[in-house]
Amino acid sequence: MLEEFAPSLYVADGPTVPFFGFPYPTRMVLVQLGDGNLWVWSPIALDPELKRAVDAIGPVRHIVSPNKIHHLFLKEWSEAWPDAQLHAPPGLAKRRPDLHFDADLGDESHPAWATEIDQVIFHGSFAMEEVVFFHRASRTAIFCDLVQRHDRAGMKGFKGMLMRLDGLVGEHGSTPREWRVSFLRRGPARTARARVLAWKPERLVIAHGACAQDDATQILARALAWI
Question: Domain of 54?
């Protein structure tokens, strides 16, 4: 389940989960920091096989959720690695008062990964704000729901048609239209987009759909052109 996507960066695909009746595949990212500790982004459902694979790489020290709807498996991961710190994106701590968050994510990286992973929040939406990351060593941008590129083969029937009309299918996938209109203030989002493109990422990992091993800057410029 855990595969090396780039040097010191691993991905694992989890089960497909329903989101308002639409099928959404899940994917997580694991980064081995320079000190050997592990940084986990948007963890998927945990099973014994995945836990053994993670433990074989190093100890989990940081668990990160990129936005307030990616929280389903945070509790089981924090219980499996009780020494790990849990980091909350905007809005999640209020949504999950049952979880203890050690820190809030901002536009500047936490000191534990500041020299290795950059981050920025796409502000300006009244519905949801997402934290986007950039792993410097592998030049990998890490997006969650802001960029979706679902597999065309899996988009069947009426729901598949809606996903295609929403611009979320194939290599030219983008951001859900209903989320776009929630960005009443586009200025902060444009600032975040400019920062992402200035990173000049080569690789792209996303939670929902096809990742990319090259041309990430061009893919993101096209996907976020609506901003």
Answer: 2-220
pLDDT in tens, 171-226: 777 788 888 899 999 999 999 999 999 999 999 999 888 899 999 999 999 999 99
Percent of the chain with pLDDT over 90: 75
Decide if 105 contacts 93 (C-beta within 8 A): no
Taking the CA atoms of residue 181, residue 150, residue 202 and residue 186 in that order, the dihedral angle to the nearest 10 degrees is 0
Question: Cα(216)–Cα(23) distance, rounded to whole angstroms?
Answer: 25
Alpha helices, H only, 121-185: 157-165, 177-180
Q: Which CATH number does the domain housing residue 121 bear?
A: 3.60.15.10
What are the distances in angstroms from CA 155 to CA 25, 93, 114, 203?
12, 33, 39, 25
Q: 33: how many CB neighbours lie within 10 A of its CB?
A: 19
